[in-house]
Design goal:
The chain is an alpha+beta fold. The chain has helices at about 5-20, 35-55, 55-75, 80-105, 210-215, 240-260, 260-270, 280-285, 300-315, 320-335, 340-360, 365-380, 385-400, 410-415, 420-425, 430-465, 470-495, 500-525, 540-555, 555-580; strands at about 120-135, 145-160, 165-175, 185-195, 220-225, 230-235, 465, 530, 590-595, 600-605. Among the domains are: about 25-105, no CATH class; about 110-235, Beta Barrel (OB fold (Dihydrolipoamide Acetyltransferase, E2P)). It is about 60% helix and about 10% strand. β9 and β10 (about 600-605) form a beta hairpin. Mean pLDDT is about 80; it is low at about 15-20 and about 405-420.
Length: about 600
């Protein structure tokens, strides 16, 4: 091809992109849904589940119209066929949600459980991880075990009175001592007191019945002594049993190397065991907006995947062998941390990336994220209503979308900056490194700001908390958290060979966690770092995310970032006005609110 024609064509395309950047309203479609079909399929599935829960056909029809309109707006063809497909997906998801609810409600164990504690003997199989919870020092009696053991049991029969009755369901079990002899999959006989989950006794208190429903638990069983736990049959060794043993031994290793308090923090970060965390530390993490750092999710999975890939490269593994090695290690990490939805979502994204690399295909992050959401909704439809799952997916979607700020320039635009890069190479090495560090910090603060702004409405509505300090705290905690995670994993692995080998890595983990605790303490005490406020109305929160999607689709790239930041701050100001300002319709009546405080009486007069 004629070089002059090539240069002319490149110049025309460059001018076109510059003109596009100057336009407030985007002339191009934000993405082609034909290349990312899982986005609309996952949205249709969520719509079907929400419509089934709310028993609203009108909501389902309205949502499908919006999805079809979005499909047509992006220039996709055959929209009628796609509308039929999305309607079918929505109905399938609704049927799956109804079937799941029917299975939960039809569990026969619910017929034997009342609100009052009753003695019972339960036979069932241990499911999930076996957790250890540290008792409060004030509640600890002399000679008593400092640990509580908790796990789930899939019930097969219950004895109340004389005879055993066959039944099915799941119980949450709490043993008031440490029990080492049971593992995942074991068939056990438990003697204790059984009861249903209690309804909240105070305004604003978490309804544990909803939490139990999401976890498919039907009741509680309290066991006083380890002698009341009898193993009938041990399960064969498998992935779940191996993961439970590794997780439990890892927690003990970190406790021995780092002490009780710091070891509990390390166990939450490394193996996902958060039951022994200090409540005061949990409050500080919530107030600084950094509680997600101890919830094993995509960030942790990404760090582990990069570490495992580096190990595979150092071992000389290439191609399919490296992909299999990374995949198996990530699968084991998912099992060790309990297979919670955020970890499953991250594992699915890693699996998509590995599959794309194996078949030499391009991986589309938003499409992969939507596919992960679809799988989780099919596994457990109630995950859609869990705040933690919503925040996890929202944070990842924000990182993917806001990352386009640094991917707007294509090859032609980057070619124009070659002279600038050439000038930078003439600078001193110290100056180049300084520019590199400043650039990385700029990116980190931008991503932290974006995630904080997009998650604030949900956190505010559910937890009555706004944490602007999170923008800075998350960036400052990034490096020590990475060091603590990697050194903690190294300590757990070394302890499998010999306990003393874990101490050097444990010392590094201790130092990193000490830095994290200092940053968290300073951030929690920072003036104007966090605010406890009444939650905004749900309709106002929904309007924010609707406007967010509309802005991403319609506003030009040049103005998108500043409109996002200014619009989010304006939304927060209006939300504060809606939530804090007193109602115009004041009543002269005296209101008395009685609060359940255990022993004694507490009354609030309004």
């Amino acid at each position: 091809m004629d070089p002059i024609a090539v240069v002319a064509e490149r110049r025309i395309r460059l001018n076109s992109k510059k003109n596009e950047a100057k336009c407030f309203w985007s002339r191009q479609r934000p993405f082609d849904l034909r290349r990312q079909p899982m986005i609309t399929i996952a949205a249709a599935s969520a719509l079907g589940i929400v419509a089934e829960k709310s028993q609203s056909i009108g909501l389902a029809i309205f949502g499908l119209v919006i999805l079809v309109g979005l499909w047509r707006y992006t220039g996709s063809l055959r929209w009628r066929h796609w509308a039929i497909l999305m309607a079918t997906v929505a109905m399938t998801a609704a049927v799956r949600s109804r079937w799941d609810e029917s299975n939960y409600q039809s569990a026969t164990v619910r017929e034997l459980i009342t609100d009052d504690l009753q003695p019972a003997i339960v036979v069932g199989k241990v499911s999930g991880l076996v957790q250890r919870v540290a008792k409060r020092q004030s509640d600890l009696k002399q000679g008593e075990s400092p640990w509580i053991t908790r796990f789930n049991v899939d019930v097969s029969s219950i004895r109340q009175g004389v005879d055993f009755k066959n039944c099915q369901g799941r119980l949450w079990v709490s043993v008031d001592t440490e029990v080492d002899q049971i593992g995942t999959g074991d068939t056990v006989r438990l003697s204790g007191k059984i009861a249903a989950f209690m309804q909240p006794t105070n305004p604003g208190q978490t309804d544990m019945r909803l939490v139990a429903r999401n976890l498919r638990q039907h009741g509680r069983l309290f066991v006083r002594d380890a002698r009341q736990v009898e193993t009938i049959e041990r399960a064969a060794w498998g992935l779940n049993r191996l993961a439970n043993r590794i997780s439990l031994n890892g927690e003990k290793t970190l406790m021995n190397c780092l002490g009780a308090d710091t070891g509990a923090l390390a166990a939450a970060l490394v193996v996902g065991r958060r039951s022994s965390l200090d409540p005061e530390l949990q409050d500080k993490l919530l107030e600084t907006g950094t509680v997600h750092l101890l919830s094993v999710s995509g960030l942790h999975m990404g760090i582990v995947a990069m570490m495992v890939r580096a190990i595979a490269t150092s071992l000389g593994l290439r191609g399919v062998a490296q992909i299999l090695f990374v995949g198996i290690c990530c699968l084991l990490f998912v099992a060790v941390t309990g297979g919670r939805p955020p970890v499953l979502r991250a594992a699915m994204l890693v699996a998509v990336v590995l599959a794309a690399a194996a078949f030499d295909r391009q991986s589309l992050p938003l499409n992969s994220l939507a596919a992960a959401a679809l799988v989780l909704m099919l596994i457990n439809p109630t995950d859609l209503s869990r705040v933690g799952v919503q925040l996890s997916f929202l944070a990842v979607a924000t990182l993917v979308s806001c990352g386009q700020r640094y991917r707007e320039m294509d090859d032609e635009l980057r070619a124009e900056s070659q002279l600038d890069r050439l000038a930078q190479t003439a600078a001193s090495p110290l100056r180049r490194r300084l520019r590199w560090v400043v650039g990385k910090l700029n990116n980190a603060f931008w991503f932290s700001l974006c995630v904080t702004l997009t998650t604030t409405p949900l956190v505010w509505m559910h937890f009555n908390l706004v944490t602007p300090i999170a923008v800075f705290a998350n960036v400052l905690l990034g490096v020590p958290m990475t060091v603590a995670l990697l050194s903690g994993l190294l300590a757990v692995v070394c302890a499998m060979a010999w306990d003393r080998l874990a101490f050097p890595a444990g010392e590094v983990c201790f130092a990193a966690l000490w830095i994290m605790q200092q940053v968290i303490d300073v951030a929690a005490d920072f003036v104007w770092g966090h605010f406890w406020l009444p939650g905004p109305p749900a309709w106002w929160v929904a309007s924010y995310y609707a406007l967010l999607v509309a802005g991403f689709a319609g506003i030009g790239r040049r103005y998108r970032a500043r409109c996002f930041v200014i619009g989010s701050i304006a939304w927060c100001v209006i939300a504060w006005w809606l939530a804090v300002l007193p109602s115009q319709n004041r009543s002269n009546d005296l209101r008395a609110t009685f609060i359940d405080v255990g022993h004694g009486t507490s009354v609030i007069l309004n």
